[in-house]
Structure formats: structure tokens, C-alpha cells
């Protein structure tokens, strides 16, 4: 057992431990270690906190060995030894493993690993000898009692007898060792038996030194079997993988929830903090998992190594590196490397991240190459590949992206990890030709060492980069257990703007080219602070350049072929009412009959009853005229515009179809009944086929795995669902419950059930009730699901926090009425209680989503940011639309609005200016085949807030005076993308650029600027013939325009414009605005036009 007495535990705790150790005999100490902890996770502090009381006298009574694990692993060990005896075990006849005594150093030994792997605990100063039919132990009396419990299991699992040699306190064990060596000779068929041992572990202590001397002086042949144990430990079973996953979860939680916030706080507040103090704090966070909200017992966890923090030009990427006492250095162009590792039940995990401060373009490029190389290594960890192929994948990426960095690449991409932090034989270097197997676990560590930065500061001139993750090899894609610690540039690059103004754009430009911006930027005020509007304009100009480049790349990839959006039509061959004539029901009289069972109508034609499937009926009507009732039936005829030919009807193109048939009757009751039956049957069949077609387009979902008894119930009761289930019965509330891989909502009715898989959730929202009447959770899905008979991508579960109450008296009660005050207090309490219940549910679901198997889904409940919300009309009624971190949503009124920000190409703010009270927002999506989204009637007071939000989220926006007709614009872009790019891309929407260009040229093809110059007649004709870009009213008659032109002079128009300004209170308007209004009045006769980019149809806008 390794009992670490680390520097962090000096002082009173160490003194108390020393006193306790001094008062006990050596044998009591051995027993105490066996009983108190065989796992090297306890330390002096925790020992003293437990009172330092003497443990129970019987080791077997206090601790038990897991017999199932022991049997399985003992059998596996002997099977592996037998199968690989010549190549991995050196043809050894016996294997002798001697575990050294405990040490104050933190170290990893294969002998200790074997103890823990086989027995569950570490047995210091114990000798184990494995033979064909026996296992011999040389140990103390206390350990022997514990080992007695596995004798039966060893015999049943592998047919082995356990021989335990108990060593007395003052005995050096010589006689026992001689007995063991004689047993080796007796069981071996060779005169000179081969004994395997671990050559790199030097004997420590009197017992092991005597044993080593005995083996050396004997005629036994000694051979190193380290490779055998490396291969034996390389593939982990389910229990081992669980321990590693828990260790990795703790490691990533400490990095994400403790280390990163602590670094950010220190840098933001400019604190002086040393690497060693950061190391101590991180170590304490690992040893106390509750600090990072991890529910693991502290006695089961430990560090893999003292956490590593490096900065200021001194970097060491070796696993044996340590944190020095220098202060954390975070000036411009500096680099900070953090690496932490934790153990759970002695199984290791590791993660390392590099943080960049005001990085240069060169540093960003080097880090980007490292991320790509790191991802390439992860992708290559597949069963059947060689271990060396992983490192070769990293080399290939570096050679392609930045060959000049190849010499700085670390010599390996990591090692195997498990009970040992570095498993020998599993180093990820180019020379290792061992095959990867499912269940192997790697500490994937890759970096660039000693890179040169173009700075004059000696502390930033040399820097290194390092990334490390814990990865499991599986039949599926490799599982990155520490993926929750993001390594993306936007999450590790920090910008503080402390350098000169010219340096910042260069870094941002590099980040922008990579498609991201440093989202964690903390800005400090500069001496020459620009206005928010100017900063926004500069950022929007940069976004415009990026957007045009991105659009050009996307359009260059190819034009995706889009369908017409129609589902598969039902062919005529599918419409079978009766399989043969004998199935047609007998009719007593020649009258129209409706066969609901076979979904057919029987029509009397020329004395025979002719069947028609109800799906062939297009419509049926009836009317009465002078006592005669007429029934008119119109059929679907193949080949018409709305009913095209299918594969079956194309075979009979010469066929004649009945389009319409009319019957007369003198029985109005029968006529009405027949028409009603036909309509009802047709409606029922149409509804059923529509639902079947909807279901046919659904993506097959995985099966819901119900939570067992081990999983705590995560449930939210008494919820309503939207969209609601169909049916005429009374609506019922239901419960939403989280299971292993999804949610299930169910009411008391067995047919009212909805299952939502975690993998199908695109966005999840939680909106507590504040000014609304409901608290809700909302799921926006990747693929449609059926709720009842409705196909939907949005499912919402809500509770009404306030009851709608109507006072019977009809009058309003006073605000000071005690009953009114009490009722309001009850409503507030109810609302707060419901909000807290929903919040608790959301937190528990977050804990489920934080599990390693859901990391790739990137699921998290998003909350609307009310302070950024605005009113608008997205559909038919006004609603309060609210941004979130990833979406723009409206979740109260139906139909719901959920727009993913990542799918937006640009935003155009229309009808902005001209004293308008409202304006419109048009959202253009990256998929140009998709219709734009219009949000109308947004109050003009919200325009500045919307601009600020769009700019903050890196969305390019434009402004226009009028509403644009987007369908012809998008159609033109899709048909001729090259022309669109050549003409400046989206810049034809840039109103400011258009106005500035028109000041220098008489004709502008990038914007609109009114001019007093008469347009060319040819251009007028072209504009008249072209499609309209602007939605305007119908053109007025030309003779009215001419009369207006003849009837009013410039002076009259000037006076009218001035009077209009006075009426509107716009006397303070600039001369430019007045000139625009004056020209606007002449727009009808002057032929003003707004030019558009070439290739986009244009037409004169009409001003009212």
C-alpha cells in the first residue's frame, strides 16, 4: 500500500498521525492499514479527521474481497498466461510478484496494480507466486486471515489451491521462501524452471531483499514478464471502465467548474497567484468532490499527480513536470497550460488544456493545427488499427497544415491509462505495432514544445501548447470522457485589448477566418474609446466580408437538389375495394349505396351496381329543384394538374375515365343521407391516409430505455401538453418523466403517450412564469414525432400558475381589500412554488445530460433573455419574442417560433426610418430554398436593442426603407450564384454604402439615391419589364402623374413639404431629410429608381 504524506498535509495533522503511529506496534500498523484502507486514497488529514481510533482487530471482519471479481480475473489471468505464454510471458513456469512496503512518494507499480486488480486492495510486503496448480502467499498473520476467504473461489474458478505462508514478526521468512522455491521445482517439468518477475521494481525492505537474494542464488531462470501484465491490464472490463468514467467525470468537472473560473477571476482581477498555490487549490478540489458538485465519496478519490500549472515561458510537457513557485503570467501573447488528473478506486484519468491570452495570428494557427491533429488521433483509435497509426494520423495533419511545426511535435500522442497512469507497452508512438482492442483506455496527450513567438518579452518569446483527454476505444466511435472541457478556440482564447489598437484586428481577423470569435473576451477601456455605434459599424463591416466569403464557399460546393415537398402519393393500384365480383354486396334495388366496411360507394349504372373506391371521389354535392333532388359526384381523374399520372395509370394512357356522374331522385331524405355518408366516409379515409403519410415520413427513433430502480425518479407531474392529443373527451394532465435515454409523457389514458429521445432534441428551453400565466419546458426536435395524430417538431409541457377567476358580483375589489391582498399572495406563492419545481426538474435532467454518453449531444436547457425581448407579429397575432443564447423564440402563443441562430444567413430590417412607428424584420436562412421568416410590426423603439443583440451574436444585419420581395431575390441567387458573388454578394442591401457611392457617381448599381436627372428611356423600359424587388401598391395612371407635374411648381411642393413637417413636428429634421421628402413628392413623375445588383430583377419603387 502506498500511504502518501504530502507537503499539503504538514502541521497538526502530520503531528497527530506521527503520534498515532508511534503508539502502535508494527503488526498492529499492518493490520490497521489492511482494515482502514488498502486503497491509496486516504491521507494524513482524513485519517486524523476520523479520530485516529484503532481499527477493529479482525481484518476479515472489516473488509471483504469481491469474490466474483476475484474468480473472473483469476481465471482470466491464467487463460492469458496459457494463451500467450511463449511471446508475452517468456514461457515462465511460475510468476513471482513481490509488493514493496508503503512509500511517501506517489508512484505506480505493476505489483500494486496486480494486487488491486485481483484482490481489490494493495498488500504491501507480500510475496505472491503463481504456479500451474497452486498460488503461494508469504505474508503476515493479519493479511493471511483476509486471504483465507478466497481459497474456495480459487479452487472453483481455476482449480487452484492457495498455500499461505504466515511470516512471524521477527522471522526473516527464509524458511518459507525455501519451501516456496521447492514447490516451484516440484510443479515444473523442467530441471531449471523459468520464473517470471517484474525486473524494473527493485526490492525494498528486508523481506523483499531476502527474497531477491534467494531467487538469485537458486538455479531458477529469471525472466521479465512486464509485457504480459501490460497486455493483461490493457483491456478493461465493465467495472474498470465505470471507475475510469467516474474519475474522468471528476477530472473534467474540476477543470471546468473550478480551474477555469479561478484562472478567469485571477486574470480579470489582475491578482498575483503562484503556480504552486493553484496546484494546491486544484488538488483540494479533487480530494473534496463536493466543491465541484460531484457526488463521489471523498475516500474513494485521489490525485494522479500534483496538478500542473505553467506559464511565463517555462514549459515542460512531460508527465513528470511540476508546478513552480512563479506567479501566473497573463500579459499579452502569453500562454497558460493546465493539466490535472484524478483517480477513482485507484483508476486514473487525465485532462490538459492550453489557454491563450491576446494571442497572435501565429499562435492561433499553431493551436488550430494542434486541435486538428488531436482530433485526428481520436478518430484513429478504432479496433483493428495499430497503436502507431494514431501518432501517424497526427503527423499527417501537421505535415499538411503546418510542416514547420513538425519538429516541435511531442514524440508520442499519449499512453494507455488505468491502474497505472502510464501503462507500459501502450505508448502512442510511431513504432508501436500492437493492435487496438475495444475496452482499451488512453491518455491522449499531444502538444507542441518550445515554439517561438514574435515578441520581445522573454516571458512570452517561447511558448508550448498541450491538449490531453481520456479516451475509451470501442466498437462505436471513440468515447472522449473529458469532452465536456471544451478545447475550441472560442473557449480557450481570451482577448483583453491591452496592446496597441492595430494589433487587435489582426487577432480577430484570424479568429474570424476560422469561423469563431473569442466569446469570453473581457474588454478594458482604452484611452481613445470609440462610440458603440462606430464599434458596431466596424464589426458589421467585418461580418459582411465574412458572410460574403462564407456564402461564396457554400454556393460553390454545389446546388442541392430540392424536392417539391410532396409526400408519396397513393397509386391507383393500391385502391382496391373488392378483390373479386363475388365480394360485392347484393343490392335489392338500384340505388346508391355506401359500403363503409370496404370503403366504397356502389352506383347504379345501366342496371348494374358499379363499385368505386371512396378515394376516387373528389367531391359530392346535392341540391333540390322543384321536388327533384340531384346528386353530383366528381371523381379524381389522372393526368389533371392536381392529380398527376402514377406508375399504374401510365400503363393505360389510352383509358377513358369517368370525370363526373349525376343522379336524380325524388326521395330527399335518402339523397341527404347518401351525400352525408359519402362525405363522412371520404373525410375519415382522407384523414387516415394523411396521418399514414405523415407517419411514413417520420424518422425511426431509438427505443426508450426505462429507468430501473437504481436510477432516481426524475418526474414532473400535472402537466399539460401542446400540441394536445386529439379526441372529443375531456383533456387530462399527465406526468413528464426522464428515463435512461429520453423522456416519456403519459396521461391516465393508455393511448395518450409521447416519447422524446435525448438524441432527437435539438434545443431545450425552460421559461419560468414572470409576466406570463404559465411555466413551461419546451423541446425543439431534429425530426418530427407524432403527438396524437399531429406531426410536430415542437413539444411543450406547461402548468398554469394562476387560475382565471371571475368575480360574481361584477365589481372590482379595492386594492387594499385584505381578501384581495391574501389572494395575490397565494398566487405569488403558487407561482414561485411551480417555478422551483420546474427548476429542480431541469437541474436533475442536467445531471443526466452531464453523463459521458450524452456529451456529444451538447444538451442544455436554455432560458429566454427577457431583457432583450421585443414585440412583433411572427404569424397572425402580436407576441413577445425573446432571444436565448442559441435561438430566437416565442413559446407562449401558438404556433411556436423557434429560430436557430446558427441557421441564419442575414437579417434585414425593413421599413426603418421615415418616421415610422413600426418596422419589420426579415430573417434569411442559409438554406436559400427555405422561405424567409418575417416578423412584422416591431415597435421602432426596439430597433437599437435588436441591432445591439444581432451584433453581439455575430449576425450580419442590413436596413432598407421598404419591404423587399424575397422570393425572386433568392431564386436569382440560386440560379446564378457566380453572378451574385461577382456583384458583391449581400452588399446590394447596404443602404449606407449605396448612398455614399451615389455621391461620387451619377449612376449607382449598388444602392438607391434619389436624383433630379431624368432617367434614360431605355432603362425605364427595362425597369418596367423586370420583376419587382419591392412590394408596392399598383402603379397610378400616367396621365394623373402628368397632371400633377403640370399643376405644381417647385415652390408649391416646397411649401407643402414644410407644412407637412410642421404638422408632424419634424422642424428639427436635417436639410438632407427635407430634400428626400421633396424628391419623394416628385417620385411619381421623375422616374426615380433604386438600382439593384446585376442579375437581380429590379423595378421602380413607388412612394406614397
Automatic annotation (TrEMBL):
Residues 65-229 form the FACT complex subunit SPT16 N-terminal lobe domain. Keywords: Chromosome, Coiled coil, DNA damage, DNA repair, DNA replication, Nucleus, Transcription, Transcription regulation. Coiled coil: none annotated. Residues 870-960 form the Histone chaperone RTT106/FACT complex subunit SPT16-like middle domain. Residues 542-571, 993-1104 are annotated as: Disordered. Belongs to the peptidase M24 family. SPT16 subfamily. Component of the FACT complex, a general chromatin factor that acts to reorganize nucleosomes. The FACT complex is involved in multiple processes that require DNA as a template such as mRNA elongation, DNA replication and DNA repair. During transcription elongation the FACT complex acts as a histone chaperone that both destabilizes and restores nucleosomal structure. This is FACT complex subunit. It comes from Zingiber officinale.
Amino acid at each position: 500500500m502506498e500511504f502518501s504524506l504530502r507537503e499539503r498535509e504538514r502541521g497538526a495533522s502530520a503531528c497527530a498521525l506521527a503520534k498515532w503511529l508511534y503508539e502502535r506496534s508494527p503488526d498492529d500498523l499492518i493490520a490497521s492499514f489492511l482494515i482502514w484502507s488498502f486503497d491509496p486514497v486516504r491521507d494524513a488529514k482524513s485519517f486524523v479527521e476520523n479520530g485516529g481510533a484503532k481499527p477493529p482487530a479482525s481484518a476479515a471482519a472489516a473488509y471483504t474481497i469481491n469474490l466474483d471479481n476475484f474468480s473472473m480475473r483469476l481465471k482470466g489471468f491464467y487463460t492469458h498466461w496459457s494463451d500467450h505464454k511463449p511471446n508475452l510471458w517468456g514461457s515462465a513456469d511460475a510468476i513471482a510478484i513481490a509488493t514493496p512496503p508503503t512509500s511517501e512518494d506517489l508512484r505506480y507499480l505493476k505489483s500494486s496494480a496486480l494486487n488491486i486488480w485481483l484482490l481489490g486492495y494493495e498488500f504491501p510486503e507480500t510475496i505472491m507466486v503463481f504456479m500451474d496448480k497452486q498460488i503461494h502467499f508469504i505474508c503476515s498473520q493479519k493479511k493471511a486471515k483476509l486471504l483465507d476467504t478466497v481459497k474456495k473461489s480459487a479452487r472453483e474458478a481455476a482449480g487452484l489451491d492457495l498455500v499461505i505462508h504466515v511470516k512471524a514478526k521477527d522471522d526473516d521468512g527464509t524458511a518459507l521462501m525455501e519451501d516456496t522455491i521447492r514447490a516451484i521445482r516440484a510443479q515444473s517439468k523442467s530441471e531449471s524452471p523459468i520464473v517470471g518477475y517484474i525486473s524494473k521494481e527493485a526490492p525494498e525492505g528486508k523481506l523483499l531483499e531476502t527474497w531477491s537474494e534467494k531467487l538469485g542464488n537458486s538455479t531458477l531462470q529469471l525472466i521479465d514478464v512486464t509485457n504480459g501484465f501490460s497486455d493483461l491490464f490493457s483491456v478493461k472490463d465493465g467495472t474498470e471502465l465505470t471507475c475510469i468514467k467516474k474519475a474522468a467525470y471528476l477530472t473534467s468537472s474540476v477543470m471546468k467548474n473550478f480551474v477555469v473560473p479561478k484562472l478567469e477571476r485571477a486574470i480579470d482581477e489582475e491578482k498575483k497567484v503562484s503556480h504552486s498555490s493553484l496546484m494546491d487549490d486544484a488538488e483540494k478540489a479533487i480530494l473534496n468532490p463536493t466543491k465541484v458538485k460531484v457526488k463521489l465519496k471523498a475516500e474513494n478519490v485521489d490525485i494522479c499527480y500534483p496538478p500542473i500549472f505553467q506559464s511565463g515561458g517555462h514549459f515542460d510537457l512531460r508527465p513528470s513536470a511540476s508546478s513552480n513557485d512563479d506567479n501566473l503570467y497573463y500579459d499579452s501573447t502569453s500562454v497558460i497550460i493546465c493539466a490535472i488528473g484524478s483517480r477513482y478506486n485507484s483508476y486514473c484519468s487525465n485532462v490538459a488544456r492550453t489557454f491563450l491570452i491576446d494571442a497572435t495570428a501565429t499562435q492561433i494557427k499553431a493551436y488550430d493545427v494542434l486541435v486538428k491533429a488531436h482530433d485526428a488521433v481520436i478518430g484513429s483509435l478504432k479496433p483493428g488499427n495499430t497503436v502507431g497509426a494514431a501518432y501517424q494520423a497526427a503527423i499527417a495533419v501537421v505535415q499538411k497544415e503546418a510542416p514547420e511545426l513538425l519538429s516541435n511535435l511531442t514524440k508520442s500522442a499519449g499512453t494507455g491509462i488505468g491502474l497505472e497512469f502510464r501503462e507500459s507497452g501502450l505508448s502512442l508512438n510511431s513504432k508501436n505495432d500492437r493492435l487496438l482492442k475495444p475496452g482499451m483506455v488512453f491518455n491522449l496527450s499531444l502538444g507542441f514544445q518550445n515554439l517561438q513567438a514574435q515578441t520581445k518579452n522573454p516571458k512570452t518569446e517561447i511558448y508550448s501548447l498541450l491538449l490531453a483527454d481520456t479516451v475509451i476505444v470501442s466498437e462505436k466511435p471513440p468515447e472522449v470522457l473529458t469532452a465536456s472541457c471544451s478545447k475550441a478556440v472560442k473557449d480557450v482564447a481570451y482577448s483583453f485589448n491591452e496592446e496597441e489598437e492595430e494589433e487587435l484586428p489582426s487577432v480577430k481577423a484570424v479568429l474570424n477566418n476560422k469561423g469563431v470569435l473569442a466569446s469570453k473576451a473581457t474588454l478594458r477601456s482604452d484611452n481613445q474609446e470609440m462610440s458603440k455605434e462606430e464599434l458596431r459599424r466596424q464589426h458589421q463591416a467585418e461580418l459582411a466580408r465574412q458572410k460574403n466569403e462564407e456564402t461564396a464557399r457554400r454556393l460553390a460546393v454545389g446546388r442541392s437538389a430540392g424536392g417539391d415537398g410532396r409526400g408519396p402519393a397513393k397509386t391507383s393500384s393500391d385502391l382496391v375495394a373488392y378483390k373479386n365480383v363475388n365480394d360485392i354486396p347484393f343490392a335489392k334495388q338500384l340505388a346508391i349505396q355506401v359500403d363503409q366496411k370496404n370503403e366504397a360507394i356502389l352506383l347504379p349504372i345501366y342496371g348494374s351496381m358499379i363499385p368505386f373506391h371512396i378515394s376516387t371521389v373528389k367531391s359530392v354535392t346535392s341540391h333540390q329543384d322543384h321536388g327533384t333532388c340531384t346528386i353530383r359526384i366528381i371523381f379524381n381523374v389522372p393526368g389533371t394538374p392536381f392529380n398527376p399520372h402514377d406508375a399504374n395509370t401510365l400503363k393505360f394512357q389510352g383509358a377513358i375515365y369517368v370525370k363526373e356522374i349525376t343522379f336524380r331522385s325524388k326521395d330527399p331524405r335518402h339523397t341527404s343521407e347518401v351525400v352525408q355518408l359519402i362525405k363522412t366516409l371520404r373525410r375519415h379515409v382522407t384523414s387516415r391516409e394523411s396521418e399514414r403519410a405523415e407517419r411514413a415520413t417520420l424518422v425511426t427513433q431509438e427505443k426508450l430505455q426505462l429507468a430501473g430502480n437504481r436510477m432516481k425518479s426524475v418526474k414532473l407531474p400535472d402537466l399539460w401538453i401542446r400540441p394536445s392529443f386529439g379526441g372529443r373527451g375531456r383533456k387530462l394532465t399527465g406526468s413528464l418523466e426522464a428515463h435512461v435515454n429520453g423522456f416519456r409523457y403519459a396521461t391516465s389514458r393508455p393511448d395518450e403517450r409521447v416519447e422524446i429521445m435525448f438524441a432527437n432534441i435539438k434545443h431545450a428551453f425552460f421559461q419560468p412564469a414572470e409576466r406570463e400565466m404559465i411555466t413551461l419546458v419546451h423541446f425543439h426536435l431534429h425530426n418530427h414525432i407524432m403527438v396524437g395524430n399531429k406531426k410536430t417538431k415542437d413539444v411543450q409541457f406547461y402548468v398554469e400558475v394562476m387560475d382565471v377567476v371571475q368575480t360574481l358580483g361584477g365589481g372590482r375589489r379595492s386594492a387594499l381589500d385584505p381578501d384581495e391582498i391574501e389572494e395575490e399572495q397565494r398566487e405569488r406563492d403558487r407561482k414561485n412554488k411551480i417555478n422551483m419545481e420546474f427548476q429542480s426538474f431541469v437541474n436533475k435532467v442536467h445531471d443526466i445530460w452531464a453523463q459521458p454518453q450524452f456529451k456529444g449531444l451538447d444538451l442544455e436547457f436554455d432560458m429566454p433573455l427577457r431583457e432583450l425581448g421585443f414585440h412583433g407579429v411572427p404569424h397572425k397575432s402580436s407576441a413577445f419574442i425573446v432571444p436565448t443564447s442559441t435561438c430566437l423564440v416565442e413559446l407562449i402563443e401558438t404556433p411556436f417560433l423557434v429560430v436557430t441562430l446558427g441557421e441564419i444567413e442575414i437579417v434585414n430590417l425593413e421599413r426603418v426610418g421615415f418616421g415610422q412607428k413600426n418596422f419589420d424584420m426579415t430573417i434569411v436562412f442559409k438554406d436559400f430554398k427555405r422561405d424567409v421568416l418575417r416578423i412584422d410590426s416591431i415597435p421602432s423603439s426596439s430597433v437599437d436593442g435588436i441591432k445591439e443583440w444581432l451584433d453581439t451574436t455575430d449576425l450580419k444585419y442590413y436596413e432598407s426603407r421598404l419591404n423587399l420581395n424575397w422570393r425572386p431575390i433568392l431564386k436569382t441567387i440560386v440560379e446564378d450564384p457566380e453572378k451574385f458573388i461577382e456583384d458583391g454578394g449581400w452588399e446590394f442591401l447596404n443602404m449606407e454604402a449605396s448612398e455614399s457611392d451615389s455621391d461620387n457617381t451619377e449612376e449607382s448599381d449598388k444602392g438607391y439615391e434619389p436624383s433630379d436627372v431624368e432617367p434614360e428611356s431605355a432603362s425605364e423600359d427595362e425597369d418596367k419589364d423586370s420583376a419587382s424587388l419591392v412590394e408596392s401598391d399598383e402603379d397610378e395612371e400616367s396621365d394623373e402623374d402628368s397632371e400633377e407635374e403640370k399643376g405644381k411648381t417647385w415652390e408649391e411642393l416646397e411649401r407643402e413639404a414644410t407644412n407637412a413637417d410642421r404638422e408632424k413636428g419634424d422642424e428639427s429634421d436635417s436639410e438632407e431629410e427635407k430634400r428626400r421628402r421633396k424628391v419623394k413628392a416628385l417620385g411619381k413623375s421623375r422616374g426615380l429608381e433604386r438600382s439593384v445588383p446585376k442579375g437581380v430583377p429590379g423595378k421602380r419603387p413607388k412612394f406614397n
